[in-house]
Amino acid sequence: MLNEQGFNLWANDYDQTVQLSEDNNLYPFAGYKNVLNTIFKEIMQNKQSNVLDIGFGTAVLTSQLYENGHRIDGLDFSTRMIAIAQSKMPLANLMEWDISKGLPDSFKDNKYDAIVSTYALHHLADEEKVTFIKSLLPLLTVNGKIFIGDIAFRTRWELEVCRNASIDYWDEDEFYFVSNEINASLKNVYTCKFHPVSHCGGVFMLTR
Q1: Of 5, 23, 161, 200, whose CB neighbour count within 10 A is largest?
Q2: pLDDT confidence of 14, banded at 50, 70, 90?
Q3: Of 59, 35, 51, 45, whose CA–CA distance to 148 is shortest?
Q4: Is the pLDDT of residue 5 over 70?
Q5: pLDDT-based confidence at 6, cuts 50/70/90?
C-alpha cells in the first residue's frame, strides 16, 4: 500500500493509470468512470448540496460537482493531490488528513447532504472501515446519503475469483469491500444498497 510520499509521486500520473486499467477492463479500476458517474447523477438530483469528499484525490468527481454549484469540503492525505484538486476547485475547503485517525475535530459538527468516498476506504482494514463509516452518521442531514464507490464484490467468493485472475498484480495490503459482509456489519445503523458496476467495482448507497 502506498504511503503519503507514494501518492504524492503518483499524483501527476494517477488519472492515466486509472484509465489504462479501466480501458482494459482490469482490476482494480474496471468500471471506474461508471462508478463516478453513478454517484454524480445521484448527487445532482439536488441543487447546491453540501458535499464531503473523503479521499478526493485529483477531484475527478468532485470538481464536476463543484462546477455544478455544490459546496465542497474534502479530506485527503496527499499534499500533491490536494494541490491538483484545489486548482480545480479554488473555493473548496480541502484539508490534508489521514482517515486512519478518524475524522478531524473541525469537521465533526458539520452537516452534509452527501458524503462521498471513491477508491479510498479500501486502505482501511474491514473493522476500521465499519468504525469509520459509523462515525459519519452524525454528519448527515436528515435526508443525507453516503456514497461509496470502490473496489467491491458481492461475495467473498467473487473477490477470490478476481484475486486469482489478477494474482500477478493483486495488492495484498488493501482491504476490499464485500457487500454481504459490510451490509451485515452496518445493518443496525444504515440501510445499505450495493450496485455492482463491474467485476471488481461498485457503488454503496447508505441512508439512515
Answers
A1: 200
A2: low
A3: 35
A4: no
A5: very low
Fill in the amino acid letter for 93: N
User: Which amino acid, one-letter code, is at 48?
Assistant: Q
Using DSSP, state whether 2 is helix, strand or coil. coil
| CA pair distance 129, 171, nearest whole angstrom | 17
Q: Report the half-sphere exposure of 21 (CA within 13 A, side-chain side).
A: 22
Cα–Cα separations (whole angstroms), residue 196 to 47, 54, 75 = 26, 21, 25
Cβ atoms of 21 and 27 closer than 8 Å: yes
Rounded CA-CA distance 175/170 in Å is 11
Helix, strand or coil for residue 181?
helix
Task: Give me the domains of the chain, ranges plus CATH numbers.
Answer: 4-207 (3.40.50.150)
Q: How far apart are CA 99 and CA 94, in angstroms?
A: 14
**What pLDDT sits at residue 12?**
54
Helix, strand, coil percentages (3-state) for the chain, rounded to 5, are 40, 25, 30
Helix (H, G, I), strand (E, B) or coil at 199: coil
63 CB-near residues (< 8 Å, 6+ apart) = 85, 88, 89
What's the mean pLDDT when you consider all of the chain? 92
Peptide bond into 196 cis (omega under 30): no
Which residues share a beta bridge with 117? 148
Q: Which of 31, 26, 80 is nearest to 56 (CA)?
A: 80
